[in-house]
C-alpha cells in the first residue's frame, strides 16, 4: 500500500488527468519513429483484424435473424390453437402475425407431409417438404436447426428453413421458411471498402445470400479450395494463387451450421513522414493533451459534485430531479438516480398496497374456511366424516387459489376454472358435456363459482348422475335478455340425466347452502334448484358484470 501511495498520492482529478495526458503523450513522442517504420505492417494487421471483425459483425446480424426466427417458432409451438389441434385457427393467427414479414410457417408430420403452409390458404392440398433431410436432422438432434439453401416446391425460389422439432402429434415439427433473396437484404457491404463482397454460406458450402461485385447467386457453390481453411471460429484467408491481391475474412455463426465471409482487394497507402513533422507534432501533442486534460478535469469535477449531491438527497428519501451536464454518461447516471428515487417511492407504495391486499384476501379465506367448518361440523356424525368433508371442500378451494396465483390474481378464463375443478373427478370427466363461450372471470368469481362447481360435481358423484356409468351431466352457460333488466345477464345450467331417481332431501346441508344461498349472494343473482325425478337441475342467473373481468 505504501508503494501505491508513493506513485498515486492523494490529488485532485485534474492533477491525475494532466499526469495521464503527459504519460500518454511522451511515450508516443519517444517511440513515434519506430511506429512509423512499423506502420505498414500494423496497417496490414489492422486490415486483417478488421476483416475478421467485419465478418463477425455480419455473422451477428445473420445470427439475430435466425434467433428471431427460432424465438418465433418457440412462441408458435406453445400457442393454444396448436395445443388444441385447431390447425385452421393456428394458420389464421400465424398468417396474421407474419403478414408484414417475409417469413412463412409450415407444420409437418414426422414423414415430412405438410399439414399447413402460410404461403397457401388453409385446406389447399400440400405435398411433402422439399428438404426432408433437414427435417430428419432436426428431429434426430432434438434442437432447432437451419437448413442448407434449396429450391422450395411451393415458392419455386431458393429458400432456407429453420426447423423446431416437437414431441407432439400430429404436428411433429414447425418450420419457418424465408426466401434467400429476402435474407440477402441483411447481407450488406456498407462500411466496407469499394470492391468488397459479402456472402452467407450454408453447411454444404453453397451460397445462401450474397452481395457485392462477385455477384454470387443463391445455391452457387463457394470456392471449394477456400472452404477447408475455415477451421477456427473466425479468421482470415489470404492466398495469392486463389485470391490475387485480395483478403478474405470468415466467421462461424455460433450455434448454427452457417458461416459468413467477406472478401475484396487490399489497398495500401504510402507512408510519408519527416523528422520536422515528428518534433513539431510531438510537442503540439503534449501541449494539446495537457490543456485538454485540464479543461476536462474541471468539467468532470463539477459533474461529479452534482451527481454526489443528487445521491445524498436520494439517500435522505427525496425524489430527485436529474441534473443536466455536458457529459452524456453523467446525464445517464443522473437520470438513473432520478428514476431510482421515483421507483423506490413507487415500490414503497406498492408494498403497502400488497400488504393491504394480502391481509384482505387472508381474512376472506379464513372467514370462508370458518363458515365452511361450522356448517360441516353441524352435519358430521364423526370426526372422520368431518375431516373428510373439510378436506374435500378445501381441495376445491385450493384449486381456485392455485389458478389465481398462477395468473397473479388477475383473473382466470372460465374454461380453465371448469376444467381444473372437474379434474378432481377424472373417472367421470367423459360423462360431462360443457358448452359456452369462454371469457375471463374476476378473482372473486373464480373462488365462488369454483366452490359451486365442486359441490355440484361432488354431489353428483356420490348420489347423482355421475355415480353410475350411464349417467350424463350437461353444464352450459349463455347470455340472456330480460326486458325489465337492461344489464347483460348470464345463465349457468347444471342438468343431470340417467342417474338414480332423485328425491329432494328433507334438510339442507352445507352443499345445498353453497350451490344455492352462497352462489346467489356471491353473484347477486338468483339460483333455482329443481330435484326432478330424472335428475338434479341447477340454474344460476346473474349479471355478467359480476363475473367478467373488465
Automatic annotation (TrEMBL):
List, alphabetically, the Pfam families matched.
Answer: HWE_HK
User: EC?
Assistant: 2.7.13.3
Cross-referenced SMART domains:
HWE_HK
Organism (species): Rhizobium leguminosarum
Q: Which domain of life is it from?
A: Bacteria
What is the name listed in the Swiss-Prot or TrEMBL entry for this protein?
histidine kinase
Kindly list the residue ranges recorded as spanning the membrane. 16-39, 277-297
Q: Does the keyword Kinase apply?
A: yes
Which terms are listed as keywords in the entry? ATP-binding, Kinase, Membrane, Nucleotide-binding, Phosphoprotein, Transferase, Transmembrane, Transmembrane helix
Its UniProt entry gives the catalysed reaction(s) as:
ATP + protein L-histidine = ADP + protein N-phospho-L-histidine
Amino acid at each position: 500500500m505504501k508503494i501505491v501511495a508513493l506513485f498515486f498520492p492523494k490529488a485532485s482529478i485534474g492533477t491525475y488527468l494532466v499526469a495521464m495526458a503527459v504519460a500518454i503523450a511522451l511515450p508516443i513522442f519517444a517511440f513515434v519513429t519506430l511506429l512509423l517504420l512499423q506502420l505498414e505492417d500494423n496497417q496490414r494487421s489492422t486490415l486483417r483484424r478488421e476483416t475478421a471483425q467485419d465478418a463477425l459483425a455480419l455473422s451477428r446480424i445473420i445470427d439475430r435473424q435466425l434467433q428471431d426466427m427460432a424465438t418465433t417458432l418457440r412462441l408458435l409451438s406453445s400457442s393454444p390453437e396448436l395445443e388444441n389441434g385447431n390447425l385452421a385457427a393456428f394458420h389464421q393467427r400465424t398468417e396474421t402475425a407474419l403478414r408484414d414479414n417475409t417469413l412463412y410457417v409450415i407444420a409437418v408430420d414426422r414423414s415430412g407431409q405438410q399439414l399447413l403452409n402460410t404461403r397457401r390458404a388453409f385446406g389447399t392440398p400440400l405435398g411433402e417438404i422439399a428438404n426432408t433431410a433437414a427435417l430428419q436432422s432436426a428431429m434426430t438432434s432434438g434442437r432447432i436447426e437451419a437448413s442448407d439453401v434449396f429450391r422450395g416446391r411451393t415458392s419455386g425460389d431458393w429458400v432456407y428453413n429453420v426447423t423446431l422439432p416437437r414431441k407432439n402429434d400430429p404436428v411433429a415439427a414447425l418450420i419457418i421458411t424465408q426466401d434467400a433473396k429476402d435474407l440477402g437484404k441483411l447481407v450488406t457491404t456498407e462500411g466496407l471498402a469499394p470492391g468488397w463482397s459479402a456472402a452467407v454460406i450454408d453447411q454444404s458450402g453453397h451460397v445462401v445470400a450474397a452481395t457485392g461485385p462477385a455477384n454470387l447467386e443463391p445455391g452457387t457453390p463457394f470456392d471449394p479450395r477456400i472452404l477447408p481453411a475455415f477451421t477456427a471460429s473466425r479468421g482470415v484467408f489470404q492466398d495469392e494463387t486463389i485470391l490475387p491481391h485480395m483478403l478474405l475474412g470468415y466467421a462461424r455463426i455460433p450455434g448454427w451450421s452457417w458461416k459468413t465471409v467477406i472478401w475484396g482487394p487490399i489497398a495500401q497507402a504510402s507512408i510519408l513522414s519527416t523528422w520536422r513533422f515528428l518534433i513539431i507534432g510531438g510537442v503540439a501533442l503534449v501541449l494539446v493533451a495537457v490543456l485538454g486534460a485540464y479543461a476536462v478535469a474541471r468539467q468532470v469535477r463539477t459533474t461529479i459534485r452534482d451527481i454526489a449531491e443528487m445521491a445524498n438527497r436520494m439517500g435522505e428519501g427525496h425524489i430527485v430531479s436529474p441534473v443536466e451536464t455536458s457529459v452524456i454518461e453523467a446525464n445517464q447516471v443522473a437520470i438513473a438516480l432520478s428514476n431510482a428515487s421515483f421507483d423506490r417511492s413507487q415500490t414503497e407504495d406498492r408494498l403497502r398496497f400488497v400488504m393491504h391486499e394480502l391481509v384482505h384476501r387472508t381474512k376472506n379465506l379464513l372467514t370462508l374456511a370458518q363458515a365452511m367448518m361450522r356448517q360441516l361440523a353441524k352435519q358430521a356424525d364423526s370426526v372422520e366424516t368431518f375431516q373428510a368433508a373439510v378436506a374435500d371442500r378445501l381441495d376445491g378451494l385450493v384449486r381456485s387459489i392455485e389458478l389465481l396465483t398462477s395468473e397473479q390474481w388477475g383473473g382466470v378464463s372460465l374454461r380453465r376454472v371448469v376444467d381444473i375443478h372437474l379434474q378432481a373427478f377424472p373417472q367421470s370427466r367423459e360423462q360431462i358435456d360443457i358448452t359456452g363461450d369462454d371469457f375471463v372471470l374476476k378473482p372473486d368469481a373464480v373462488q365462488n363459482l369454483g366452490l359451486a362447481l365442486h359441490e355440484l360435481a361432488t354431489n353428483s358423484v356420490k348420489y347423482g348422475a355421475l355415480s353410475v356409468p350411464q349417467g350424463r351431466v350437461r353444464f352450459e352457460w349463455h347470455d340472456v335478455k330480460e326486458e325489465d333488466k337492461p344489464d347483460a345477464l348470464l345463465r349457468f345450467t347444471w342438468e343431470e340425466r340417467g342417474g338414480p331417481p332423485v328425491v329432494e332431501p328433507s334438510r339442507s346441508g352445507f352443499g345445498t347452502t353453497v350451490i344455492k344461498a352462497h352462489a346467489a349472494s356471491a353473484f347477486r343473482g338468483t339460483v333455482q334448484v329443481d330435484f326432478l325425478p330424472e335428475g338434479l337441475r341447477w340454474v344460476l342467473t346473474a349479471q355478467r358484470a359480476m363475473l367478467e373481468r373488465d
